[in-house]
Specification:
By secondary structure, this protein is an alpha+beta fold. About 25% of the residues lie in helices and about 35% in strands. The strands form two sheets. It has a four-stranded antiparallel beta sheet with strand order 2-3-1-4, covered by helices on one side. Strands 5-6 form a two-stranded antiparallel sheet.
Length: about 110
């Protein structure tokens, strides 16, 4: 099953951005060496102290606590602000694609290469 782990940080202090930057540098160093699953990091479009980290991975078993990387990031971000950590599992109807794209204003099934 395909999973996405979402870690969201809302910091009240602008100074915490430096701590976040250092943590992100460490994540990208790990990613470059091939140690981590796919990771995307987003910053809120209007609030520069709000971040969302998305970790994409596949598994055959249910992992409600997420990946070791996600747990490490959550631990490292504690104390920097309001933190949420959740794991999402891709869901689709039996035999139907779970991902869709917009095409001319209509939802179209997104076919993935197998």
């Amino acid at each position: 099953m395909k999973c996405v782990e979402v870690i969201t940080l809302r910091s009240l202090v602008k100074a915490n951005i430096e701590s976040m930057d250092e943590l992100l540098r460490q994540v990208f160093k790990s990613k470059i060496s091939g140690v981590t699953p796919d990771v995307s990091i987003y910053r809120h479009s209007m609030l520069e102290t709000d971040f969302s980290i998305h970790i994409y991975w596949e598994t055959k078993e249910q992992h409600t606590k997420g990946t070791p990387l996600g747990q490490q990031l959550t631990s490292g971000l504690e104390g920097l602000g309001l933190l949420t950590h959740s794991v999402w599992v891709e869901k689709s109807a039996q035999g139907e694609p779970a991902a869709f794209s917009m095409n001319g204003g209509l939802l179209q099934p997104l076919r993935r290469a197998s």
